[in-house]
Amino acid sequence: MEKKDTLVLGGHEFTSRFILGSGKFSVDLIKAAVEQGGAQMVTMALRRVEAGQKDNILDYIPKDVTLLPNTSSARNADEAVRIAHLSREVGCGDFIKIEVMRDSKYLLPDNNETIKATEILAKEGFVVLPYMYPDLYAARALADAGAAAIMPLASPIGTNKGLSTKDFIQILIDEVDLPVIVDAGIGRPSQACEAMEMGAAAIMANTAVATAGDLPLMAKAFGEAIRAGRNAYLAGLGRVRETASASDPLTGFLGD
Question: Which of these, 17, 24, 163, 183, has the minimum number of CB atoms within 10 Å of its CB?
Fold first, then answer.
């Protein structure tokens, strides 16, 4: 009997490991990610759900898809906490992605302020998924603060540069007892597959799909790549050698 393989976050189970970011928002993007990519979780900025606003994101997200509001625009822990409270008040649930960025050029997360916000919100019952720069000490502090997972960046947001921080993400996967969701910068399905082969728990992608020529096809490609990478990780990747090794025996042929 095949063992059920699910992603568990805050007591919630997900069969899909593809999470859609909503930075480049469009109805077609959400539709493609959910229907073709199999995404069961969609991130959203609180500004997308303001009352009376045109193109309210909540109007386009299926009811069986989990919302992951983020604290984008927060510059410190206090602002992130305030945004999380507003998110809960408008009915977005207890999931929250912490994003604290004071740098407007590179949009790198402030790990120290993220840890502070995580500790406060975890104590208040939020399922906290912090976006962070892949640093082992910060990751351990986030785990101690009550994070449900950690979300290290692969490369700067929106760049599609891929796994620029691969070695550091691998350290987190090996050393931190939390799901590691690779977030930001994944530009190709092959890169998502590689991250999953490393042992990542899930992939968050947005720009790579949103800027593709064919949104549904690219969403499908990401979904399939993520599943393939996960299966490869579970199967156990083949060994790597420095010297050649014949795949067939070199004796007992040609009449010997």
Answer: 24
